[in-house]
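Q: Hi! First time doing this. I have a protein sequence and I read that you can turn it into a structure. Is that right? Here it is:
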Amino acid sequence: MAEAQTIPAESDALRRVLDAIDELGLKENIVELEAHGFTTVKGVLSATEIERAKAVILARVERHLGTAIDLDSATAEDFHGMTYVPYLLYDDEIFEEILVAPKPLAIVTYLLGESCLLSSMGCHFKGPGGFPLPLHSDNGNGIPAPFPAFSHVANVNYALTPYSREAGALALVPGSHKLARPPRPEEAGLGDDGNPNAVPMDIDPGDAVIWHGNSWHGSFVRQVPGIRMNLAVYFSRQYVQTQERHADVVPEEVRERHANDTRFLNLLGAKQPYGWQKAGPDYSKFALMPRGLYD
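A: Yes, that's right. Below is the predicted 3D structure, encoded as structure tokens:
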């Protein structure tokens, strides 16, 4: 009788990823993520962190506009529709703290592996009126269908103000990550005549929604006074071109603050071997290249 084959042991990286999920009490979130393509983690940010982030973002918008904005009572005449505020990481140390918030980062690592990169960090700053952000997949940026079952990219969306459909909430389509394609034009709409499967994220400030890169998402028009603010933290696998430039342009004071935080620096490309110039490649970094889905 032939010997029974042994099942190979899980990789060290996978064990580390699953241990972190277990230690942080995120098993139910992983089940939800696998079933629906997204999951919500409640109360990730404290009231102090929320207010610090909001103040920095609002100040930047007001400097750009040259006028003050009332977050609670702004009308469409004050600020109409949505604008994107990019490259927030270096505006204040609060964004460095949020980048490595343990629970969302553990779920992102489950999706993208330990070698994943910060692709971008910005705010969708939304006043009343304008247009909905149509449903789309983040894989639509150059990744052809059919999409693989695993994520190339993943998103963490922090609510900095209350989310509801009337307030212009994030929308997601449960199970859309399994369709392995972007929505067709007739499936992408949001609103009364839009995709009936789109679900508004009714969540509180400080909550975070994390989703698989295949998942269809967008946002509703804000129908009430005031401003909806979020912090969108977008991640990618190491081989995907990031939206923002980090790596060689990380401010020295940021490097010094995180000199002993390997994970933080790796998120900003510290072990990325590509992008060399005349000096040629740093071969020591190639030894650190990911070899699977989790490392």
